[in-house]
Design brief:
By secondary structure, the protein is an alpha+beta fold. Helices cover 33% and strands 11% of the residues. The protein has three helices and two strands; from the N terminus they run βαααβ. α2 packs across α3. The longest helix is centred in the last third of the chain and has 15 residues. The two termini are 25 Å apart.
Length: 95
């Protein structure tokens, strides 16, 4: 869900969302540096590629999900330097 970066602007108010966590749920948080990574033709990596990675690796530990995202992003940009900072956090509900 796009929005204002945390801590960027003093006094900013954020929406609060509450939801139930269930065993098997996976939550992944990524900075725009992941989604906006471009290939040689200027196409963005985008969120749909992240979802495909998560579908493929859903049975793996959270660290493997993050590793899979970073490996795929690096391949997508042909292992060139990143144009922006990239952060990914994965949370798997296991019990």
């Amino acid at each position: 869900m796009p929005g204002v970066p945390l801590g960027s602007f003093p006094g900013t108010e954020y929406e609060e969302h509450t939801f139930d966590l269930k065993v098997g749920d996976i939550y992944v948080f990524c900075t725009d540096g992941i989604y906006e990574t471009e290939d040689a033709q200027g196409r963005e990596f985008g969120s749909s590629r992240v979802v495909k990675i998560l579908d493929k690796l859903a049975d793996q530990p959270a660290q493997k999900l993050v590793d899979g995202i970073f490996e795929s992003v690096a391949k997508f940009r042909f292992y060139g330097p990143a144009a922006d900072d990239m952060t990914a956090v994965a949370v798997k509900i296991t019990s």
